[in-house]
Amino acid sequence: MPTAASASSWDPLDAEGVARLLGPTGVRWWLSGGAALDRWLGRAIRPRPNVDASVVASDLAALVAGLPAGYSAWAPGEGEDDVIPFAEAPEDADVQPVLIRDDAEGAWVLQVNAEDGSPRAWVYKRDPRLNLPWDRAVIDIDGVPTGAPEVQLVWKALRPRAEDTADKDAVLPALTEEAVSFYETALLRIHPHSTWAIHVRSPMTPAKASWNRKPRP
């Protein structure tokens, strides 16, 4: 039966809690989104209402099956706020993101996103031209698999909100030259019309960026 996602509040796990929950499932998973940026930077950039982890789409069902007793998985329903038990989702449905609930507490604790990948490499779901070996895309930070910060910024770059820009501004100055190069190349190749790409394409005079000029009458 469908239920409203908003009917349950969020009590997000911390990074170590995510590792305890997902580690025993036996599939490849990694902390992603803003939680990954906070983990990599070593501090919370801003308050976060939820926490994300990612998994290769083909491993999603196995991850759900491996959850411990007391936790349930819910997939998007037909309505905007509707969720249904993961086991009841149609086979041909886009069943992600999946919400994980602590049933005893009646609270959502984790959102799981399905991404693309091969045995050797992470692949950007929006454009397979963008990929990285797994040991570059997911790094171990004190025992917690964590999405590389440059990859998380690319995810955020498509339609960045003010809070995404706050994340970028905190993380970008701390990236290595290699990571910055990956991020900037991805912006120009994959998301050239992102507002973040203006300063990459024309850092001194962003208003003159060629793609940002308004056509003359």
Helix content: 25-40%
- Count of strand segments: 12
Low-pLDDT residue spans: 206-213
Per DSSP, what share of the residues sits in E-state strands of 2 or more residues? Answer: 15-25%
Q: The biggest beta sheet, please? A: 10 strands, mixed
Determine the mean pLDDT.
92
N-to-C series of helices and strands: EEHEHEHEEEEEEHEEHHHH
CATH class category name of the domain at 3-148: Alpha Beta
**Apparent shape:** globular
Put simply, the count of helices is: 8
Rg over CA atoms, rounded to whole Å, is 19 Å
Distance between the termini: 56 Å
Q: CATH topology of the domain at 3-148, which one? A: Beta Polymerase, domain 2
**SSE class:** alpha+beta
The CATH architecture name of the domain at 3-148 reads: 2-Layer Sandwich
In words, what does this structure look like?
It is a single chain. With 217 residues, the protein is α+β, with helices and mostly antiparallel strands. It has a domain at 3-148: Beta Polymerase, domain 2 (2-Layer Sandwich). It has eight helices and twelve strands. Strands 1, 2, 3, 4, 5, 6, 7, 8, 9 and 10 form a ten-stranded mixed sheet that branches. A two-stranded antiparallel sheet has the order 11-12. The longest helix has 14 residues, at 177-190. The chain is globular and about 50 Å long. Residues 206-213 have low confidence and may be disordered.
